[in-house]
Design brief:
The complex is a heterodimer of chains A (200) and B (188).
Chain A: H1 12-32, H2 38-43, H3 51-72, E1 86-87, H4 88-105, H5 109-117, H6 121-148, E2 152-154, H7 158-162, H8 166-195
Antiparallel strand pairs in A: 1-2
Helix pairs in contact in A: 1-5, 3-8, 5-6
Chain B: H1 2-16, H2 26-44, H3 52-65, H4 67-71, H5 74-80, H6 91-109, H7 125-145, H8 150-159, H9 163-180, H10 184-187
The chains are: A mainly alpha (200), B mainly alpha (188).
Amino acid sequence: MMPYYKFNYFGLDTSLVIAVIIGIGFGFALERGGFGNARILAAQFYFYNMRVLKVMFTAIVTAMLGLFYFTWIGWLDLSLVYTIDTYIIPQIVGGLILGIGFVIGGYCPGTSIVSAATGRYDGMMYFAGMFFGIFVFGEMFPWLENFYNSTPMGRVTLPDFLGLSYGLVVFLVVAMALGAFAAAEWGEKVRFKITGRIKE
Amino acid sequence: MTSISGILEKEKTEIKVYEPKPYSNPYLAGVGLGLVLLAAFLIMGRGLGASGAPSSVIAVVVNKVAPDHAANNNFYKEYIGDGTANPLKDWLVFEVIGVAIGGFISGSLAHRIKGKVEKGPNVSVKMRLTYAFIGGSLMGFGAKLARGCTSGQALTGGAMLNLGSWAFMFAVFGGGYLAAYFFRRQWL
């Protein structure tokens, strides 16, 4: 049965070796996708290169379909896959701060690691800034703790929340992603016609 | 004449080999990223992350410098643990080391390793680096408040159809598009 680690197929030390291997795949895919380059990431917010949306939603859909399939054929116990509990208001506020930081800094935490590893000085500065931001959060935590733990909703998924079946939500997300891809391809063409700016 | 142009032609192709290759098709890269994420789910029963590892490092440093201070703070305490295990012997720490290696391998194969600053044409290097630090700080702070970043929340929670992660994802894009106008000089 999967997930293998939860069924004790191997121990902690082996899991750390797997962590490095999975990390290598993660970093490799991010770099291939152009995510080590702040100009490409920021372009998402000016509509002239929609790579972020395309790569991210393709990845989410791929992994989501895999989870659904392996659950459906009975090989995976989805309840054993760890997922973060929902604290809806802190998550929305944190997301807004993250989005603003994304436009200012040009990276997100994972992509800044790839950027720094491929020699980009702005990626290294961003990475240093992230440490500073986490440290500030840590120091402010006694004051933030109440807000941080507010609006707890536990482990709740979209199917639970919407009262729809798992399969239907998967179908809706795939449909939404395909619509977003079509809109992105169309938008890039329109943007190119107006500005003549070529995407990288 | 033909021999000279022939040499020039040859030189051109030899130089061209070291030019950075174009990035992959985004859908192909997305499928690759999705399969890595799926592998983490199926093998480990967890997703990917990026901001967890720096948090562990900071908690360890604060605990070394000021152990009493760290002990009175629930945020640091969570990363340090009960002292029975080394907090840096953590899955996310090893995964992030892998991310740096994987990015370097991919960049090397495509000749994209280069010491440079990525920025728009209308902003100085100094300004761009300052913005990178400020943006990184905001994201470090925001990621902790949201219990994860684009990797741990948007990608991982997105594929798990986690409600909070989807709300987070829309908030990230919302915040980005709201702020984009004010920082356009940096990129356009």
